[in-house]
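Thread: Ketol-acid reductoisomerase, structure

OP (GT): Posting the sequence first so everyone is looking at the same thing. Length is 321 residues per the record. Can we get the structure tokens written out before standup tomorrow? I want them in the notebook alongside the other entries.
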Amino acid sequence: MLTDADLDPAPLHGKTVAIIGFGNQGRAQALNLHDSGITVRVGLRPGSDRAAEAAAAGLTVLPPEEAAAGANLVFLLAPDEHLPAIYAAIEPRLAQGAALGFAHGLCIHYGLIVPRADLDVIMVAPKGPGAALRRLYTEGKGMVALAAVAQDATGNAWPLALAYAAALGSGRAGAGVLRSTFEQETVSDLFNEGAVVWGAVPAILEAGFETLVEAGIDPALAYLECVSELKLLADLVEARGIAGMREAISNTAEFRASRGGGRIVDDAVRATMRTMLAELRGNGFAQALSAEAAADYPTLRAERARARASALEAARVRLKG
């Protein structure tokens, strides 16, 4: 892990950074850079409902093509599926030898964007949501980030990437910057999203809740047992690690856990995980994401509607009032 003691902020001194997008990551990164003394432009389409918020924060707001024109570094922080069209629109305005930045490697790794040969192509990927990135920065802390270089046209790509990470606050005590690659960041991130934290964990929570309710357990109690305790688990794992988490719970809980986890995550589940990982070595997911966006997200809309109408959600609303 590289910290501020290892990171030189000089490559960004006197430079102009264009942040394209002002959503989850765009807002946090633009504000952190601005507060670190970096000249920031925010690129938003005309009529964007984010423009007033960005301007109120003291940031210069321009259409994406104008924000990118002449900037030393242009960071694309809109949703992944929109980035190819954004790059096509701004590419004629990018200065010779400028740098193009990403917070996720998907578009470069899967070839959805093929940058001009004269551009440096870097990635700085904070390992958490933008709201947390911003909150930690304002508290004088930082968030761990991955840094990578896909194209080093000028010979200055790595120093620039690390300076950018430092300006986000990722080199501060308690955080750090880890050198990585576009491939490793993309594949590991998508694997986690599908097979572990964002895909499998919610599915297990729902399955456990449904199993208890089917057996006659009150839905509110089933929710407390199967969902609410997840935060306790996450906090313990973050503070102590998995081994320390097991030592912190009661002997009864630890013994029961030892007799349950391996029966759920068995060899068949591990084989499925390996299959899901292998699928990410091709570009099928990137193509499916593009098709989903082109059709106005029918799968995501249906899944959101299903989740909102579920018995688990009803139990949550009942408990939270």
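GT: Both are above now. Quick notes for whoever picks this up: The beta strands are 16-20, 39-43, 60-62, 73-76, 99-102, 120-126, 145-151, 177-179. Residues 219-248 form the longest helix (30 residues).
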